[in-house]
Design a protein that fits this description.
- By secondary structure, this protein is an alpha+beta fold.
- The protein contains 32 helices and 16 strands.
- It has a five-stranded antiparallel sheet. Strands 7-8-9-13-12 form a five-stranded antiparallel sheet. A four-stranded antiparallel sheet has the order 11-10-14-15, with no helix packed on it.
- A hairpin with a 2-residue loop joins strand 2 and strand 3.
- It is globular, with a radius of gyration of 30 Å.
Length: 734
């Protein structure tokens, strides 16, 4: 929901390219971004870009009319998906000797870098890749340089580093720079996993025959590695444990091999693993113990395991939470006791070859200041033993059939469908919980007279529902809608709409579908009052404030009514900016504190945390302060909500004249002094419906009760949704 706008646009564009058979080179990222790059800033002394290579998206870099190198965008060659779920576009220039002569961070949507860490700091780090020798990187497998990381942006910097190295090697090989060449696949037998292979059943034998590979680091080795770094602060913060103390022992095995999975995990877990993996997927098990965790805790907040990455030649795979399963029990006899045992999926689309060597790179950090860290890496190499492989002859080359463009486009379309279906399958639990929440809420809305008959019961039901909305939908699932979603949708409608693109985020898709339906029935209150995590946070904190007897401020009606339009002005301003620059609109959309308070859990630069906290503090005194006056998403939802088909909230003729009970007790002051409910401001909390039936608060009900006492008549409290016996007011309400 967090959000995938740029990635969705790219996928939508790619879908259209495939459907219409457009050549990929014509729609490369390079061709889209080249006008945004000043060649002189990319490469010192360069004065122009030349022609684009006919076969790959790389452009000549010229100086005085002579070519001095090639420039390309990393996203054209490797996956550059970062913390935000969107590509990080970096332009790199290399010369004929395969030396990097220029690097520039062109475009990204990283939430921490975009807003929390100065862009200049990241660009300075990226520029430090000038002079990188890609020939040396090819010989070392991409590890001959020292990785420099900015604390607080670990995943972002590691993705940039991976993309520069992997994309640089691909370009250098395809262009023959520095003597590098494309690695030709052998014409002889290739290898594949042998499904009939068997594995030993005890841990020691599995270690001995290479089925398991180990990386062991003690405290002395780690201290020595940091002491060798240029930063002297790293040595001063050395670990104080005895040098022989185990810092980390990490072991790994390729458990997508059936025999290895059965030996390590047992038959039942191996069968479940096989069902979890799609065709072409692989999986690696990693076991760890010692002082250091290979998982860390960053994945809990950001969904990415930032301490490990799988590397195979030009391929790098960074693991996300949806690609992860815990191992509860190790089946192999004599297995050590580990602190961590986990399985990580290697997607088929990564291009990983289980028959070839790979390595798990471990990132180790050390605090050197209050908010500063230094980093170093260690590698755990792995080669699947030959007894788990069998040779297979490569298929003979096939003639290119007629209509290949049509076949290719259909394949890509099917691949996109398979992608979103896999994502939905991995989110089964989250989707089920959201479906239950929506079902319960729909039932409450349809049977609101019954739901609100018990004031105390309904109060605690609402508190519980808002708690689930905040904790589960917000902090766990990151299902916080934003006005930016609407701007991205409009941009997609203008540039070419794709259902498949928006289906990639199931929680957001379902929520928006539910909101669209609710707008026709109940208005914006169904989302704003019940399903918005930040709205829930405000209301729950206000409940705590009331319990602590913090005074509540009621703004004069005239001032309150004049503050309402602010959120509409903010929304229209953002929408206008989005027509010219969606990136600028995203920055201005920080007026919504959702990213800070819900998505990033307040882990941001202090100005954004201070802003979010200030709004929450204001909400302690004025309930839902942000919702009332500043929320552009609420304004955006209020506009189409005018088209709703039903008026559900019941009122008496006495409401507003003379009775002001509901108006005074409305949490967001959505009821006019004259008794009408403003549908644009109502959040459907149903407090007025509780009062409508209250035998202790509503004067009309009390009067009817007294009349029944004196006459013996049974009063009609107007619980029939038609309202005919009481002839309730006909008025506009959510």
């Amino acid at each position: 929901m967090t959000t995938l706008r740029s990635l969705l646009k790219t996928l939508a564009l790619f879908s259209l390219m495939s459907l219409f058979g457009l050549p990929a080179a014509a729609q490369s990222v390079l061709s889209q971004l080249i006008d945004d790059v000043e060649v002189g800033q990319l490469v010192e002394g360069a004065d122009a870009f030349g022609a684009i290579h006919p076969d790959i998206p790389a452009v000549q870099v010229l100086k005085g009319g002579q070519q001095i190198g090639w420039a390309f965008v990393t996203s054209d060659f490797v996956s550059t998906t970062g913390y935000s779920g969107k590509p990080i576009h970096t332009m790199v220039a290399v010369d004929e000797a395969a030396q990097v002569i220029g690097v520039e961070l062109v475009k990204h949507s990283e939430p921490i870098v975009l807003i929390g860490i100065p862009d200049s700091k990241v660009k300075t780090l990226v520029a430090g890749y000038r002079g990188l020798d890609l020939v040396a990187e090819a010989e070392s497998g991409g590890s001959s340089h020292e990785l420099d990381i900015i604390s607080g942006a670990t995943v972002t910097i590691m993705v940039i580093d991976d993309s520069i190295i992997r994309a640089g090697l691909k370009v250098a090989r395809q262009l023959g720079l520095g003597g590098l060449a494309v690695e030709e696949k052998g014409t002889g037998p290739q290898f594949e996993i042998n499904p009939d292979a068997t594995a030993a059943t005890d841990w020691m034998t599995l270690e001995g025959d290479g089925t398991l590979r180990r990386l062991s680091l003690d405290v002395g080795q780690v201290n020595a590695a940091f002491a060798a770094m240029d930063d002297p602060r790293a040595a001063k913060r050395a670990l104080t444990e005895a040098p022989e103390t185990t810092f980390i022992e990490m072991q790994t095995a390729l458990v997508s091999v059936p025999a290895i999975a059965q030996a390590l995990l047992g038959d039942a877990v191996a069968a479940n693993l096989d069902e979890w993996l799609d065709e072409g997927d692989n999986a690696v098990a990693i076991f760890g113990r010692g002082l250091y965790s290979f998982k860390g805790s960053g994945y809990v907040r950001g969904g990415i395991f930032d301490r490990i990455v799988l590397i195979q030649n030009d391929i790098s795979v960074r693991f996300r939470d949806r690609m992860h399963k815990r191992i509860n029990t190790i089946a192999a006899n004599g297995a050590p006791v580990f602190n961590e045992s986990d399985i990580f999926k290697i997607p088929a689309e990564s291009g990983f070859d289980p028959s070839q060597p790979f390595r798990i790179q471990l990132l180790v950090h050390r605090d050197v200041a209050a908010i500063e860290k230094v980093f170093t890496t260690f590698d755990l190499g792995y080669q699947l033993p030959e007894n788990y492989l069998r040779p297979v002859a490569p298929p003979p080359p096939a003639d290119v059939p007629a209509g290949v463009a049509e076949v290719t486009s259909q394949t890509e379309k099917d691949a996109h469908q398979a992608l979103w279906k896999r994502i939905w399958a991995s989110k089964t639990v989250e989707i089920t919980v959201l479906g239950v929440m929506l079902t319960i809420l729909t039932g409450v809305f349809f049977f609101q007279s019954f739901a609100t008959i018990n004031e105390r019961g309904f109060f605690w039901f609402r508190i519980a529902f808002l708690t689930v909305t905040l904790v589960y939908l917000g902090w766990y699932a990151n299902a916080q809608l934003s006005v930016v979603n609407l701007m991205a949708l409009f941009g997609s409608l203008v540039s070419g709409f794709s259902w498949q693109a928006f289906l990639l985020d199931p929680m957001t898709f379902i929520l928006w579908f539910a909101v669209a339906a609710a707008l026709l029935f109940w208005g914006r209150g169904a989302y704003c009052g019940w399903l918005c995590p930040f709205g829930a946070l405000q209301e729950l904190l206000n409940r705590v404030a009331k319990a602590l007897h913090i005074p509540q401020w009621t703004l004069p009606w005239g001032l309150h009514e004049r503050l309402w339009p602010l959120k509409y002005m903010i929304f229209l301003g953002l929408f206008g900016v989005s027509l010219t620059s969606i990136e600028q609109a995203e920055r201005l959309a920080e007026v919504e504190p959702f990213k800070t308070a819900i998505i990033l859990n307040f882990v941001r630069a202090w100005p954004f945390v201070a802003y979010a906290v200030a709004l929450l503090v204001a909400g302690l005194f004025v309930e839902r302060f942000f919702c009332r006056y500043l929320c552009p998403l609420g304004a955006a939802l209020a506009i189409p909500a005018r088209l709703r088909m039903f008026d559900w909230l019941k009122r008496y003729h006495e409401c507003g004249n003379p009775c002001q009970t509901c108006a005074h007790q409305c949490p967001v002051q959505a009821i006019h002094p004259t008794g009408e409910i403003n549908p644009n401001e109502c959040i459907n909390c149903m407090h007025c419906q509780v009062l409508y039936q209250s035998k202790t608060t509503c004067p009309v009900v009390i009067k009817k009760m007294k009349r029944r006492t004196t006459t013996g008549a049974v009063p009609n409290l107007g619980r029939d949704i038609s309202g005919h016996p009481n002839q309730p007011k006909t008025q506009t309400a959510t």
